[in-house]
Specification:
Spermidine Synthase, Chain: A, domain 2, globular, Rossmann fold, 9 helices, 2 domains, alpha/beta, homodimer, 7-stranded mixed sheet, 281 residues
C-alpha cells in the first residue's frame, strides 16, 4: 500500500525503520551542483522538501525544529546582536532569528543557493523576513566563512546542517568547533542540530566532547519532537563560551511573540535528560 | 522498497503518514474473541506486537510509554497503595507500578487474556513482575469493574487503552471518568493515554474537559516521544481529585531505580505545554 508513486518514503537503514508521507504531486525536481532537490505537495503535511533523498522539512511540522534551533540559543546570550547561520538555506532559522529585536545583523551562509530559491517558491512563509535589512544571505562555504572570521565576530552561531555525511561531516568536527569558538565573542553561544536521541546517542555524546575540547565552558542537548525526522525525536546541542548551559533570559523569553512551539517552559523542559542519556553517552 | 513481505507498515490515513519497521519474520498471528493479534521479530526494534493492525509496542521503545503512564501518576499521589490498570494486558504498566514500594495491591484488568499470554511469551521482560504477590491479573471488562467498585477503592487508576475506536471509545467518555472519580479515594489520581499532540489536539482538549466535568480538580497532559506511535510524539493526561496537576513527590521521584526514561526532571518537563497547545485546544 506504500507505493513509490503515491508516497515519499525515507528509510533509516541501520534501524530498519521508515517514514512515509502520502503525495498529491511532485512540484519540482532538480540536481544542483551540490545535491538532488525535490519538492512535493503532500496530503497531510503541506509541501515537502527532500535533499538527497532525506526529508528536510514540511510546511506542517518545521516550526518545532526551527524554533528550537534559534530561541534557546538567542535567549542564552545576554544581548545577541550578530548572528551567523551555517546552512539553513530554507530561511526558517533566519526568520526566527529576526524575531529578536536585539539582532542587528543576521548572516545565513548556505553553500547551495538553490535551496533558498526553492524555499522562496514553495515555502514563502519561511522567507517572509528575507527582505529585512538586517538579513544577509550568502551562498558559499560556511566552514571557510567561520575560519576567516575575525575573532569575536559573532554572538551566536547556529549550525543548521544536514546529517553528518559528505560535506556536512566537517560541521560536526572538533576543528570546526574551535573555529566557531574563535569567531564568537566572550559570551558567545553555539547551537547545532545533533540528530536523534534514540538513534544517534554516540554522535550526541561525541559532539558534547568535541565542543568541550574546543574550549566551550558548557554544552548540553535540547530535545524536541520532530515528526518527520527519523525516530520522530530530535536534538540540538547548545554550547556556551561562558556560563551554564541551562541559564537563560527567562523574563525575555516569556515575551516572545509568533512562536508555535517555543516558550520559556519549553526552553527549560527541553534540557531535561532522559535516564538512558544520563547513564550512557 | 517498503514491500508488505519484509516490512510492517501502519498507515495514519487522516494525516497521510505511515511508519514502517523492517521484519525478520512473523512469530505469531491469531484472532482472539476481541481482536487480531500479530507478533513479529523486527530488524531494529526487537519484537513487535500489533493489535488490529496498529503498533502496540516494540521491545526497543516501549519503556518511554510505560514509564510515563505510571511514574508521574504514582509520584503525584501522597502514598499510592491500591492501583488499578485498565487495559495494559502487555503487563508493562504493571511492572512499573510494582517498582513503588508503597503499592500493596495492583490490579490489571484487560478484556483480552491473549494479549497477556503473548506478552509472557514474546515480551517476558514486561512480565517479570507478574508473579509478585501484589499483582492481580483479571481478564474482564474494565469499565464494569470501575462501575462496580466501592467508592474510594483505589488510589491511582491507569487507563492504558488502545485508540478511542470500538470498545475502547468508552474509556474516553465523561460517564466512565465519573465512575473513575467515584472509585478513587480523596487524593486519587487518574492517568489515561491521550494520543498524539500533533494529530489529536481536539481529543486531548475534550479529555481535559470531560475529566473536569467528572469532578477532578485538575487535569493536564504529559508529553513524551514515542517513536513507533503515529507522529512519534504521544501524551498521557493526568487528573487529580485534589491538588494541582503538576505537584508531585519530587524527592521520592529522585530515588526511583530501574527506569530508562523517567526521572524527576523528565516529570516536570513533560508538563511543559507547547505554544500551539496553549493557544488552541
Amino acid at each position: 500500500m506504500i507505493d513509490a508513486e503515491n508516497w515519499f518514503t525515507e528509510v533509516e537503514e541501520k534501524n530498519g525503520a521508515a517514514m512515509s508521507l502520502r503525495l498529491r504531486r511532485r512540484l519540482h525536481a532538480e540536481t544542483s551542483a551540490y545535491q538532488r532537490l525535490e519538492v512535493y505537495e503532500t496530503d497531510g503535511f503541506g509541501n515537502l522538501l527532500v535533499l538527497d533523498g532525506c526529508i528536510m522539512l514540511t510546511s506542517r511540522d518545521n516550526f518545532i525544529y526551527h524554533e528550537m534551533m534559534v530561541h534557546p540559543a538567542l535567549f542564552s546570550h545576554p544581548r545577541p546582536r550578530r548572528v551567523l547561520i551555517i546552512g539553513g538555506g530554507d530561511c526558517g532559522c533566519l526568520r526566527e532569528v529576526l524575531r529578536h529585536d536585539s539582532v542587528e545583523h543576521a548572516e545565513q551562509v548556505d553553500i547551495d543557493e538553490r535551496v533558498t530559491r526553492l524555499s522562496e517558491q514553495f515555502f514563502p512563509e519561511l522567507c517572509e523576513s528575507n527582505s529585512d535589512p538586517r538579513a544577509h544571505l550568502h551562498f558559499e562555504d560556511g566552514v571557510r566563512r567561520v575560519e576567516e572570521a575575525a575573532a569575536g565576530s559573532y554572538d551566536v552561531i547556529i549550525i543548521d546542517s544536514t546529517d553528518p555525511v559528505g560535506q556536512a561531516a566537517r560541521l560536526f568536527s572538533a576543528p570546526f568547533y574551535r573555529a566557531c569558538y574563535q569567531a564568537l565573542g566572550d559570551e558567545g553561544v553555539l547551537v547545532a542540530q545533533s540528530e536523534s536521541p534514540l538513534y544517534h546517542q554516540q554522535l550526541m555524546a561525541s559532539m558534547v566532547g568535541n565542543l568541550n575540547a574546543a574550549g566551550f565552558a558548557a554544552a548540553a542537548p535540547l530535545l524536541f519532537p520532530q515528526c518527520t525526522y527519523p525516530s520522530g525525536w530530535w536534538s540540538a546541542t547548545l554550547a556556551r563560551r561562558a556560563g551554564a548551559a541551562r541559564e537563560f533570559r527567562e523574563a525575555d523569553a516569556q515575551t516572545i511573540r509568533g512562536t508555535r512551539y517555543y516558550n520559556a517552559d519549553i526552553h527549560r523542559a527541553a534540557f531535561a535528560t532522559p535516564q538512558f542519556l544520563r547513564a550512557g553517552g
